[in-house]
Write a structure and sequence with these properties.
232 residues, alpha/beta, Metallo-beta-lactamase, Chain A, 5-stranded mixed sheet
Length: 232
């Protein structure tokens, strides 16, 4: 079985056991994108060395990076740093590479790996990063560390944890803060609504299946549905 799956042109997905919680019960997703001459990894996680998928996955990523002129590794939320640093160290000597994330990502580094910080603006706003390959959105009130990423060339929007995929194929908002209904409705949801106005076909999530068609409609439906309080 191939370790990755091409879910749309330019978008490849793979899964690995969650590295910290429910390691035997849940597999979380990572993505490799091809945009022009760039390879982009989103929240990349490698399986354990003794996992039979480890070597084939690395070979696939090696091929992807080898065909690119630059590599952009993007972390949507600090605790999704996972294998980002390992992959940066693997490739930076061969291809121009940058690792993007919130400043708190560095707290999870083992080495003195350079981080290109994703700036955060006011809630609901976005900033272009990686020479325009992506736009990073600020969500939450107060602001969350998570920065959803829009890839306009692929009409794809990636979330860390704010939005998850459900077994039936729909999307839901994950209310990890478990706040009051009024807080969720009046302070959190309004920061996500600008994302539901984007020209998006695919919504890429790390928990559960992605939405690969009519992503904007699926995201709007998620915002109009009750949130998930405890995803697992």
């Amino acid at each position: 079985m191939h370790p990755t799956e091409q879910i749309l042109p330019g978008i490849t997905r793979w899964t690995c056991p969650h590295p910290e919680y429910r390691t035997n019960a849940e597999e979380v997703a990572s993505y490799a994108l091809t945009i022009g001459d760039a390879a982009v990894f989103v929240d990349p996680l490698l399986p354990r060395d003794d996992d039979p998928r480890h070597a084939p996955l690395l070979a696939t990523l090696d091929e992807r990076v080898g065909a690119a002129r630059r590599l952009e590794i993007m972390v949507t939320i600090p605790y999704h740093t996972r294998s980002a640093e390992v992959l940066f160290e693997r490739y930076w000597g061969d291809v121009a590479s940058r690792l993007w994330g919130n400043a708190a990502v560095t707290k999870r580094f083992v080495w003195d790996t350079p981080l290109t910080e994703i700036p955060r603006g006011t809630m609901g706003t976005s900033t272009a990063i990686a020479d325009g390959l992506a736009r990073a959105f600020t969500i939450g009130n107060p602001r969350r560390l998570e920065t959803p990423l829009l890839f306009p060339a692929l009409r794809a929007l990636a979330f860390g944890d704010a939005v998850v995929g459900m077994p039936g194929g729909s999307l839901r908002v994950w209310d990890q803060a478990d706040g009051s209904p009024s807080w969720y409705r009046e302070r959190f949801l309004p920061t996500l609504r600008p994302l539901a106005e984007l020209d998006v076909e695919a919504v890429l999530v790390t928990h559960g299946p992605p939405a690969t068609r009519a992503g904007r409609r699926a995201l709007r439906a998620a915002l109009d549905s009750p949130p998930v309080r405890a995803y697992w």
